[in-house]
Design a protein that fits this description.
It is a single chain. The chain is an alpha/beta fold. It has 2 domains: about 150 residues, P-loop containing nucleotide triphosphate hydrolases (Rossmann fold), CATH 3.40.50; about 70 residues, no CATH class. The protein contains 9 helices and 8 strands. Strands 4-5-6-1-7-8 form a 6-stranded mixed sheet, with helices on both faces. A hairpin with a 2-residue loop joins strand 2 and strand 3. The longest helix has 22 residues. The N and C termini lie far apart (about 45 Å). The C terminus is likely disordered.
Length: about 240
């Protein structure tokens, strides 16, 4: 695989399960070291950099994450001291969780989880995923990595995230992993992976016009959602 990502580019990485999407992103983030080849930052092998400094470049939401038994603000800032509450609220707004947070007894000071706090609140899977997105936005790394960021969301919340995507990624390089191809139209370039290789590359429109694997998968998904909607209407 030979891949160059330009500064400020919005890159979508799609493909079937096992295609290598998450592995590719974890290589780029420095979480995995390649057994062959190199990952370069500005022409330098990333293994030459201090690993902690390199990690600071990335704000990421992966499928596996940890929620702290602490306040909403602490979960977003991942710190207990010197929390910028205005920034916390801004990130919550950008992620789309303001209405839920405002409904909590103590707002951003409300505790999450009930293992420690009897008055702690329990968030749904989708709300927790959006909270993790607010956390990534608060970190404000130069590269925003979103690995299936809408997997636990309902269609309305998912659509809201897509429409806010340009604002969230403004001035950043972004890597967007998704199996829902309709979400990729918000990105500058799409990589369609198969068996760990880049099988197709282009924009949403150009890949549909190409008529290859991406277009076929998009057609299958479109038909599935259309038939599902029709069936739901009949029910």
């Amino acid at each position: 695989m030979n891949l160059t990502i330009k500064p400020g580019e919005k890159l979508a990485i799609v493909g079937l399960n096992g295609a290598g999407k998450t592995t590719l992103v974890k290589l780029l983030c420095g979480f995995l070291d390649p057994t062959e080849g190199r990952v370069l930052l500005n022409g330098e092998d990333i293994r030459k950099y201090n690993r902690r400094d390199y990690y600071d470049l990335f704000s990421a939401v992966f499928q596996d994450f940890s929620v702290l038994e602490a306040s909403v603000a602490v979960n977003v800032a991942q710190n207990v001291d010197n929390i910028d509450e205005n920034r916390v609220r801004l990130c919550i707004e950008k992620a789309g969780l303001t209405e839920k947070v405002n409904s909590l007894p103590a707002g951003i000071d409300s505790k999450i989880g009930r293992q420690i706090y009897e008055d702690g609140v329990e968030l749904s899977g989708g709300q927790t995923q959006i909270l993790m997105l607010a956390r990534a936005l608060y970190k404000d790394g130069a590269v925003l990595v979103l690995d299936e960021p809408t997997a636990a969301l309902d269609p309305i919340a998912e659509n809201d995230i897509y429409h806010k995507y340009s604002e969230m990624t403004k001035g950043k390089t972004s890597l967007f992993i998704s199996h829902r191809l309709a979400s990729t139209r918000f990105c500058d370039r799409i990589l369609f992976l198969e068996n760990g290789e880049i099988a197709e590359e282009g924009t949403h429109e150009s890949l549909l016009a190409w008529g290859g694997g991406y277009a076929k998968l998009f057609e299958v998904q479109s038909r599935y959602y259309k038939e599902g909607g029709e069936n739901n209407g009949e029910d």
